[in-house]
Structures are given as structure tokens and as C-alpha cells.
Automatic annotation (TrEMBL):
Superkingdom, taxonomy of origin: Bacteria
Domain spans labelled ASCH: 25-143
Lineage, broadest ranks: Bacteria, Bacillati, Bacillota, Bacilli, Lactobacillales
Pfam families: ASCH
Protein name: ASCH domain-containing protein
């Protein structure tokens, strides 16, 4: 099923959704993280604000997203509930828990995100530090 077909099927079963606007994306570890969203364990994500291109849309409260697996197949629909910018070193224990990964601790979150962000920063010719601005998003799976 294409992403657009998936969206239309979602809208057909959710008549209260009147928008045709949605985003579709895959996480860094697409299959694993899409599964965590689908089973309700992952209800948050974090991205490095500095790595957004000026033309990239940033998550917005109320918007819908289609989470894709590693083969770019739609898995589920989420709706963004909270978006806040927080320095890397001030991301909360609660947010790390809601990301749903590993043992759900802040230590695990920092270890994984530090490695991923360092790699992304390096690819962009930039240097990672513990004060980089992070976009912390909380979402709800709605289908």
C-alpha cells in the first residue's frame, strides 16, 4: 500500500480528520522504532535542530505523521502533541522514558543519541556538543 493510500484509508476511518496535510518519515533504526510506535511503547522522539535544512518542515503540534518501516512502508499514524526545544544536556528523564528505547533510562538515551548525533554532525561538517538544541516531540499513535 502506498503512503497516500494508507492516509486515505486512515481518513476514511477517522471522519473527524479533515486535513489533507501529513508528513511521512522513517526513524534512524526504522524497523525497530516503527514497531515500538506501533505497540505504543515509543511516544516521543528527538532530533537535532541544527541539522534541519532551512526548507525542512519542523514538527508542529496537531500535525499528523505516517511512520514508515525500513522498506518505506506505512506502519501507523501519529499526531504530534508537544514540541519543545531543549539543549541536549537538559533532555529530561521523562522524555527519555517516553522515547521507549533500550531500558528507557536517560543514560541509555544520552549514549545512543550522542552517537547518532555525532555521526550526523560529522556528516554535515559540524561538531557535536552537549548543548546542541534538540527538538523534543511527544506524539500519540492514532491508528
Amino acid at each position: 500500500m502506498t503512503v497516500e493510500e494508507f492516509w486515505q484509508q486512515f481518513k476514511a476511518t477517522h471522519p473527524d480528520v479533515t486535513t489533507n496535510m501529513y508528513d511521512a518519515y522513517a526513524f534512524f533504526d526504522a524497523d525497530t522504532l516503527a514497531h515500538l510506535v506501533k505497540i505504543g511503547r515509543k511516544t516521543a522522539t528527538t532530533s537535532a535542530l541544527d541539522l534541519y535544512d532551512v526548507n525542512d518542515a519542523r514538527p508542529q503540534v496537531g500535525e499528523y505523521s505516517i511512520v514508515l518501516d525500513g522498506q518505506d512502508q506505512p506502519v501507523c499514524v501519529t499526531q504530534t502533541k508537544v514540541v519543545e526545544t531543549v539543549p541536549f544536556d537538559l533532555v529530561s528523564t521523562e522524555h527519555a522514558y517516553h522515547e521507549g528505547e533500550g531500558d528507557r533510562t536517560l543514560a541509555y538515551w544520552r549514549d545512543v543519541h550522542r552517537k547518532v548525533f555525532k555521526s550526523f554532525y560529522q556528516q554535515m561538517g559540524r561538531e557535536f556538543n552537549e548543548q546542541i538544541p534538540c527538538l523534543c516531540e511527544v506524539f500519540e499513535r492514532v491508528d
